[in-house]
Amino acid sequence: MTKHRCGWCVGDELYEAYHDQEWGVPVTDDDTLFEFLILETFQAGLSWITILRKRENFRKAFDGFNYRKIAQYKQDKIVSLLQDAGIIRNKLKIHATITNAQMFMRIQEEFGSFSNYIWGFVDGKPIKNKLKHYKEAPTTTAISDALSKDLKKRGFKFVGSTVMYAHMQATGMVNDHEVGCFRYHEVDNES
């Protein structure tokens, strides 16, 4: 018997694996939250599958998504990233990643962890939507608007409301699995 999955991932092995194992699972680990923040930043204007296919290249290029190292990147590292065909070679997004790593650590200092900060926008628990079809999911919400505005005020780049809503979906702050999807109830028990 085949499991019903959200329609957006069906037909691509990598997409299905991501959907089945990661998407919508509540993430409270700062390292993983930063990884998704970087990936979502690079995804802006592109398809998520493009980013997933390059994820391991990003991991290698950006020192395992180590924000402490990334925050220290100098011009020689930026030049090497701009020459790395395995990632998205966008100068603005590369610079934004460095800035965002620096701001990420400031938030950690202020709130004890980035997780404490970001999960505060949903009162520490996932919002569980009841979508019959994935196309019913919003691209932004009042919460993603507020989160985006606050991050920008703190100096983050490429964190528009649409990017932040996608981040909320990916990290389980919002459960946008279709109600008929086998993962809809499962993700509640994983974190």
Layout of helices and strands:
Layout lengths: L12 H9 L8 H14 L4 H14 L5 H4 L4 H8 L8 H21 L2 H6 L7 E2 L13 H12 L7 H10 L3 E2 L7 H4 L5
Structural summary, described in words:
- By secondary structure, the chain is mainly α.
- The protein is built from 10 helices and 2 strands.
- Strands 1-2 form a two-stranded parallel sheet.
- The chain is globular and about 50 Å long.
Comma- or semicolon-separated keywords:
191 residues; mainly alpha; two-stranded parallel sheet; 2 strands
Summarize the structure.
With 191 residues, the chain is mostly helical.
Enumerate the spans where pLDDT stays under 50 for 5 or more consecutive residues.
Answer: none
Major beta sheet, strand line-up: 1-2
- Gap between N and C termini: 27 Å
- Give the overall shape: globular
Question: What's the number of extended β-strand segments?
Answer: 2
